[in-house]
Amino acid sequence: MTEATTSLTGMRFSKGHGTGNDFVLMADPDGLRELTPEQIAVLCDRHRGIGGDGLIRAVRSKHVSDGAALLAAHPDAEWFMDYNNGDGTRSEMCGNGVRVFVHFLLSQGLVTLAPGEELTIGTRAGIKVVSRTANGYRVDMGPWDFIFPEQAAQGGSDSVVSAAGLEVDRPALSINMGNPHTVVALADLSELAGTKLGEAPIVVPAPPYGTNVEFVVPAEPLVRDDVGHISMRVHERGVGETFSCGTGACAAAAAIRFWAGAEAPDVWTVAVPGGEVGVRFFPGAEGREHVELSGPAVIVAEGVIADGMG
Length: 310
Prior knowledge:
By secondary structure, the chain is an alpha+beta fold. The chain is about 20% helix and about 40% strand. It is built from 6 helices and 19 strands. It has a 19-stranded mixed β-sheet that branches. The mean pLDDT is about 95.
């Protein structure tokens, strides 16, 4: 890799989203234009930049240290999703982002992928296998885990969350989806709407590297036609409230399913402010339960960065 560029001028970009979770995307196949956190924050600024919840750089795995380490075991993982939050901080993974990433690779002619075919992608949370569907993409997000398994097993919660708009602190459950999540169940949609996510909720104890926080309302009834239904809002680390969060939707479904008990379904629909995504739990090859995320991906604009930005 080379040193970060001194200027963003002339760089090509695309703007895309998955259920309203939006990203600035850049193709850097040979790993020549790694951006600084400050440059990423400028590009993702919604008033002075392009605007986005994060920035995704498409780079061949061999040119990134995290990606090169994956190639030994997964030589088909040619492409690496280099993802940073909107404030420039690095993030392990983004479920909506990986769908948009694959759609971006297709739009740029960097890969081909017919409906039903799969593409292996490298991320900082490991390998993700993405399949193209008739209406979007589905992603094997890999296994999920409790961040604090002993506390979860003993009492069904492991932390307490306070947020503006909630009169009392709420018990929560922390889920690892390759990145950390803390899930809070609320009573109804009015309580969900009244929760103010302009500032980060306080989680005690917090996972070591911070956490995304999901506020979730189970539908009434929870299960219809063997499918669970929930509604969710989320505050993402380094971003704030977003219209959607793919790994957050998986974590929310995992938590509600755990709380619902052994009879809870394996298929879930998660309503977010930006639309709807699907979540499915299934046995993985290594004996651990995996989570599949499905939903749309859209590229809305392409352009060239003008002089004066960054």
